[in-house]
Structure formats: C-alpha cells, structure tokens
Design a protein that fits this description.
Radius of gyration: 22 Å
Number of helices: 11
Largest sheet: none
Distance between the termini: 48 Å
Oligomer: single chain
Order of helices and strands: HHHHHHHHHHH
Shape: elongated
Length: 274
C-alpha cells in the first residue's frame, strides 16, 4: 500500500503588523518630511498655491465686483468675496490630493511603501498634513491679496485665524473624498474630471460669489445647506462680524461626518490596493 501524499497548506498571508501611536506619528513625520523635500526639489508644484489665490481674487473682484456691488464699489465686494474664497481654495487644493495619490500609484511610488514596515494609514495622513501646509500658504497669499485690495478686518486677528483654521479643517475632511476617488479611478485625468463635475455646481450654487437671496427658491434651499456656502458664511462672519455659531457648527458637522465616513473607506481601499 503506497503512502498517502499530503499537500502542505498554503501559508496564510502576512498581516500588517500592528503599529502603536508613537510609531504612527514617527512614520507620518518622516513621510511629511519626504513630501516637503519633494516640493523643495520641484517648486513648480507650488504654482497653483501661489498663483490661484491671486488670479481668482483679482478676476472676481474686477469682473463681478462692479456688477454685484455697483460700479466703483469693488472695495465693498472685497470684504464679501475674500472670506468666501477660502472655501473655494480649500476645495481646489483638496482636489489635488486625489490626483497626486493616483499618480503615485502609476509611477510605482506606492510599490516602495509596500515593502516598508510602516502603517498604511500614515501614507495618507502624511499626504493630508502636507496639503494642509500648502493650504495655509494659499490662505496667507489670498488674505494678503485681499488686504492689498482693501479688505478690512472688522473683528480681530483671532477671529481671522479662526476662519483660516475652519477652512483647514473642512479642507482636510474633503481630502478623504478625493483620496478615495484617486484610489478608485484609473487615471489622474479621470479623477480631476469627475471631481470638477461634482464640485462645480457646489462651488457656484453657494454664497461664495454672490448672496443666495438672489437665487430661485429651490436653488436657495440647496445653497443654504451646501457645505461650501456654510464655510463661506462662517468665514465671512468671522472676518466682518455677525452671527457665526450656526454656520460654524454646520461646517464642523460636515467635516466630522465626511471624515467619519470617508476616512475608513479610503484607508481600507488603500490597504487593499497595496
């Protein structure tokens, strides 16, 4: 009688080692430094951060300012527009995260990370931290441009910093959406195309450029709960004064909700993809 032949079971796939908080922070710090060095080696990657706030501020003040505030009253429109543009700036920079993640996979950068004993989530968090830094630079340039055009701070510096911080929080939440989109779509162009189709209506059906009171009732109802409009209203109240609590709480609720839903989905998709 011949001996039975036994087939050894296939080894179970190696699980990602559990990494503590200190290790995660160390990995995030190292990856943020790597991302910053990449920006230093490629300063053209900051072109959108530097030029976009200047171009948008000048264009909307001098193209739409006269029509909305009256000819010769563009200065009054600056105080309305510039705080609202914080919402658009945070959205546009957040969108760049999705295209960046997609290109990193295409170039094989993520293949290198796959071989390293690092937490997968640290790669995504480091991307967000880096983009928040770019967002701070863009906000500083935008506010500088606003003050050059006649922006008047009617509250205090602390209120102004609170408006910037609020736009950072909301922008960081939006990044999780674009990260998931970048991990799902096949090309960076597809990521940008889908993002623009979704975000253009949100951007213009809001109070960023003009008061919602001039809109039809159905559109005004949508704009009043549009998160970009809520952020624009909150930043405007923090800069110009007025009731701020309602808009701030709405922005924070949107930020927490988006992060709570999209961050786990993005991390799970990233782990599956790597």
């Amino acid at each position: 009688m011949s001996a039975a032949t036994f087939t050894a079971p296939a080894p179970a796939p190696a699980r990602e080692p559990r990494i503590g908080l200190r290790g995660n922070l160390r990995h995030i710090s190292a990856l943020v430094r790597r991302n910053a060095l990449q920006i230093k080696q490629d300063p053209e990657s900051m072109f959108d951060v530097v030029m976009m706030p200047i171009i948008f501020t000048l264009m909307f003040v001098y193209v739409f300012g006269g029509a909305i505030a009256g000819k010769g009253n563009q200065g009054a429109y600056v105080n309305y527009l510039v705080p609202g543009l914080m919402a658009m700036t945070s959205m546009n920079i957040a969108m760049a995260v999705g295209t960046g993640i997609n290109e990193d996979f295409r170039k094989g950068v993520m293949d290198r990370f796959r071989t390293m004993p690092i937490a997968r989530s640290s790669v995504l968090v480091a991307k967000i931290v880096t983009e928040v830094g770019r967002m701070i630079v863009a906000s500083a340039i935008q506010l500088g441009m606003g003050f050059a055009l006649g922006l008047t701070l009617k509250t205090s510096v602390l209120h102004l910093l609170a408006a910037v911080a609020l736009s950072m929080v909301f922008g960081a939440a939006l990044m999780w959406i674009f990260i998931l989109l970048g991990l799902t779509m096949k090309t960076a162009q597809a990521v940008q195309g889908v993002a623009m189709i979704v975000l253009m209506p949100l951007q213009f059906a809001s109070s960023i450029f003009a008061p919602t009171s001039t809109m039809p009732g159905w559109l005004k109802a949508f704009a009043d709960y549009n998160p970009l409009a809520n952020l624009a209203d909150a930043a405007r109240a923090l800069v110009n004064g007025g009731a701020v609590a309602h808009s701030v709480w709405l922005v924070l609720a949107w930020s927490v909700g988006i992060t709570a839903v999209m961050a786990p989905l993005a991390v799970a998709k990233f782990r599956k993809k790597t």
